[in-house]
Every structure is written in C-alpha cells, then in structure tokens.
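question for whoever is on the cluster today: can someone run the full assembly for these? two chains, 587 residues total. i dont have access anymore since they changed the login thing
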Amino acid sequence: MSDYAVSLLVRIGVEAFVALSAYLLLVIGRISFGQQAFFVIGGYAAGIATALYGAPLAVGIMVGAVAAGVAGALLSAVMAPAGGIYFAAGSLAFGELVRVALLSFHYQVPVGADLTGPAGADGFRGIRALFTGGMSVTTYMLAVSGLLAVTSVVIVLLLSSRWGEAMRMVGEDETASASLGVRVRRVAALTMAGAGALAGLGGGLFVHYVTYIEPGHSDVMLGVHSLAYAFIGGLGTPLGPIIGVALDIGLLESFRFLAGYRMIVFGGLVMGLLVVRPRGLLDEVAVHRLSRLVAWGRR
Amino acid sequence: MVDFLQALVDGVMLGATYSLLGLGFTLIFGVLRRLNLAFGPTILVGIYAGSHVGLAWPGALWAVVAATVVAAILCGIYVERCSFRALARQAPVVSMISTFAVWMQLQELVSLFEASRTMPYPSPAWLPALTVGPILLRSDALLMWSGATAIMLALFVLLYRTRFGTAVRAVADSSEAATLMGVNVSVIGAAAFLLASTVGGLAGVLIAQSQQQVTPYFGLWATVKGLTAMLLGGAGSLPGAVAGGVILGVVETQTLWHFGGQWRDLASFALLFLVVALSPRARSEPTL
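^ ran it for u. tokens below:
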C-alpha cells in the first residue's frame, strides 16, 4: 500500500473518532462546537506520556483518552444543564479557551540530549514513540482501523442497551425522561466524559502519527466538521459519522483537479444532500429498511 | 484612572460594532429560531468586494460602501434560500449545518479573488482625532461608534415604531400567534434576514475602515463576536444584543490595556463561557 493511501486512511480513522464523539453528544441532544479541545487535550497528554516519561505507545494513547475523558467529566459539571444554543456556544468557548491556554503552556524536560515537551505557541515536537517502537505505518493504520471498528461496535451495543435508551430519551425530552426516572445529569455527564475520551483517543492516535501537536490544532473548524459528518453520513447509526468522514476526505482528495473550487463544490453537495436527506445518508429510516432486508434474507 | 477611562471609551466604541453584529444575529435567531453560522462569512465577502472596489477606484468611498453592503446582502439572500427556506420544515440544527457548508463556499470564493491573504480597506483619512481632556478619541473609532449608533437608532425606530417592526417582533415572540393574527411568517422571516444582512454589511464597513485591512479569518471572527454579543444579552433580545456588544467591547479593551494583547481573546471566551455556566436562561433553552 502506498504511503499516500496509508496517510489518508489514518486521517480518516483519526477524524472518525472526533466525529463519533460529536455524534454521542448529538444522541443526548447536545450540539458541540468544542470537541477539538478534547482532541488536543488527548494529544498533549498522550505525547507527554510517551515522549517525556517513556510510556509505551498503547499506554500513552490510553493516558490521552483518560485525560480527555476526565476533562469531559469536569466540563459536564458546568455544562451539563445547559441546552441548545447555550451548550453550542459554551463548547465553542471551551475549545478556544483550551487553545489560548495551550499557547502559554510550557512543560519541557530534558530527554536525552535536548529539551522535549510542550513549548507554548511553538507546539510540542518530537513525539516519536511510533517510530522508535519500530511499528510500520501500515501496521499503525491497521491498528487505528481495528480500534475504530471495535469502538463502533461498542457504541452500537451501548446505544441498543438500556443506557442508550436513556441517552436517546434525554435527547428527545429532558423533562419527560426525568419524570420517568432517568437521571438526566448523570447521563449527560457520563456521555460528555465518553465523548471527551473518544476525541482524546483520536488526538493520541494523531500525535503519534504526525509526531507533533500545537495549540492551533484546537481549531473550531475541526469541531464543526466533526459535527457535520454525522449529518452527511447519517444519524441512524455510528457508521454515519464514519461514512461522513470518509466521504469528506475521499471526495476532497478526488476533487483535486478542481483546484480552487473544491470547497465550493463540496459545500454545494452538502447543502443539496441536506435538502434531500436532512438526517444524512444512513438515517433511521434507511437503517430500519436495511435491517428488515437483512432479517428477510435470513428467513 | 485615565487608563481605565481611555480603555472604557475605546471599549464602548469598539463594542458598538459588536452590538451591530449581535443585532444581526438576534434578528435571524429571534425570528427564525435558527442559528446562521454563515453570518460572519457573508460580511467577509462584502468587505472583500469593497476592498477590490477600493483598489480599482481609489477615493470613491461611497462605491466601497455600496459594494460591501450589496455583496453582503446578495450573500445573505443566497444563505436564506439554500439554508433556511429550502430547509424550513427540517429541524433547526439542519439549517445550522447547511450554513456551515455555505461558510466553506464563501471562504473559498474569497480566496479565489484575493491577491494576497491580507487586503487593504480604505478609510476616510481626512477625519480629525478629538481629544477630550486626557482622553484621545481616534477618528476611526469615533466613526465606528457614531455610525453604529446611527444604524442602531434607525433599526430600533424601524422595529419599534412601524407596522413591519411590530410584525417582526410578533413572529419572534410566537410565530404561531403571529400567523393567527394574519402575519405572513415566511415573508417576515425573509425580510428579517435581509435586514440582518444589511446591518451586517454596514457593520463590516465600519469595522474594516477602522482596521484598514481584512484577512479571511474575519468570517470566523465576526461570527464569534456576534454570537457572543447575542448570548451575553440573552438570546433573542434586541436591547440585550446592544448591551452584550458593549460589554464585550469594554471587557476586551480593558483586558488589552491592563494585561496585554494575548489575554484579549482569552477574556472574551472566558466571558462567553461564564455566561453559559451562570445564566439561568441556559438551563431553560432546549431549542436549536
């Protein structure tokens, strides 16, 4: 497989984690413009774990996910009661606060001959655990894909469990679900923690592939894109956001000949798609029809 | 003390343009109950159009203003058609995602026509600066404040003293009740959108003549400032948006003056975050 194809697939995998995290929040009816913050928190934490303290790659990536999950849980203490446009704006503000805070985050320790670690606006370079560990990029790409597949299955199982039922109830109507005994605050807090961990996982996978991260990676555009992916691919299943990412990156790459007009064409396609299929390609109706088709095939 | 007063005056003048952006946001959000993320980028296109006209005909300031406002209005009509009218029966969030797609288009449209990343924007250089006691009033800031105040007064007369304004506020209050009173809600929605684009274009002129340049980041910047001003004043309230803009402007200039440039954005985002964390309205606003 060519390096180009591998890098494209890693990018799709990494962004799919951020898209899934925005999707989880959509299930509980929250629109987030701030998932990029957790992506960056996860990236920094994972990088610090491996590059500064010599943790193995897998441990470092887990550290990143846990750090972002904890950040999500902490944020939920403030944001869980907020709904609608307020949640959207608060998450946007949080994303930018994290970016500005990282601009003055210096934490460098000597590793070998030189200093390594986050250096404010200059970012955090030299996160080489993937390459010093001797893993090939193709293996890494397969690992990212495998992790994404496992995550999707876990989310599908979660959403079809009682927990998923509670999450959807919160998304539909908080007052009604509270009156039926759903602990709205707890569901929102745990979902925000889980969504944070997913984005953080994406961040940890990202830094080890590109070997550096900077405050600018907490970009509002990443957050809004990851939200839009669910609406492109479909809100019916966790597959939707992943399809959205693959379509976005795949189409943008295949539109190279349109140099300079890519976003105009792509934006137009998304606008048209939203008119025809407002809940994305794989919406609830399509998922239902497909599952009936599968059930009919089994008979 | 003089520093504090100077920063306060600067903040009020800067804040007046934030109020305009907040009013544009409020007009659309209040009437349609939908968020228009492409509001900033439509103004961006307007300013770029004005900048190009300014380069082609140096000195023709009226042409620059006209080009800016007309381009912003045309983009506003495009957004209204594609993201609001075509999706009127869908959930509000679908419109919001659609405006984001328009944003990507407008951003690239700008980059197609730009010569460099930063474009110059003409300003009326003949205006003198005023000094009142120890306080300096920069001419561009003064123009920004007086222009924004005049536009706001005109807007409030239109919204609170005419039949059309009553209809707009009726739809914002309750579109069902307004329909029952014989108001054509979809016409009022489109008119409010047009009005918001005009206000946005004029705000763009005032901001760009003060900064004397424009970069493609202006779209994101204007959207964030407008959204913050609207939310600070309580989403949907017109006087609130004015107050929110001024508060945002004052907080920014005070931080800039006392702590330095790098804290300015931090302060404005911290303010937005605090509003979400503390506002009781945040807890009772499930719509989007």
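summary bc i know u wont read the tokens: Chain B touches chain A through 50 residues (CB under 8 Å). The CA atoms of residues 16 and 144 of chain B lie 7 Å apart.
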